[in-house]
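Now for a typical sample entry:
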Amino acid sequence: MGSLGMQEIIVIFVLALIIFGPRKLPELGKSLGRGMAEFKKASNELKQTWEDEVRLEKERQDMAEILKDSSDWKRSMEEEVRLESESPSSTTVNSKEEEVRLESESPSSTTVNSKEEKVRLESESPSSTTVNSKEIQ
């Protein structure tokens, strides 16, 4: 089915003129025009409503993603705080690499006989700092 040609339009107009008469034809044209305008308006409103719903659904999904990410972040921060509170005191060495580093910084003339002595020397050392194994890696 293609578009209507000039001959088809003339035939339809002549039939409408014969069926409805010359007085009713302008009223029929007005009502047909109003009907088409209302249909177009209703279809535009439906389209706009549909687009609004799609946009709102996307925003809901984005907000859910943000909330999930923030709750994951909060959980990880709480876990990190819990681990830090459970970690040994600041004078304890947290990794083997840190222990070796602190030994090299301690005075070379002192012989370390025990782990307690090593910890005491590290706390007396001026450059002694606590470094977690996470910070080294």
Remarks:
- Residues 94-121 form one domain.
- The longest helix spans residues 6-86.
